[in-house]
Amino acid sequence: MQDEQIDTMSKLLKSMSHPIRLKILCLLQDRELSVGEIRDEVKTTNANVSQHLNILRSQGIINYRKDANFIYNRIVDERVLDLIHKMRVLFCPNF
User: How far apart are alpha carbons 82 and 57 in whole angstroms?
Assistant: First the structure.
């Protein structure tokens, strides 16, 4: 592997490794969700959810769309969807 590839993987995994961000990604793997829906599931503040979503957006992992007063988030990096699926198989066999 090239150093550039290692750096890219490291940044991606670091972005995903925070428990709240990983939970957000697990929630987003099947459908897009609003910030409020994510907040309710993660059980934290809007500000905290927004901070974590911004980190995921800055890495190109998720994107969003606006619909009236709501912002809906979705995973746009297919590699992340594949990785989450693989982690579920490995770590959550009864899911």
Answer: 18
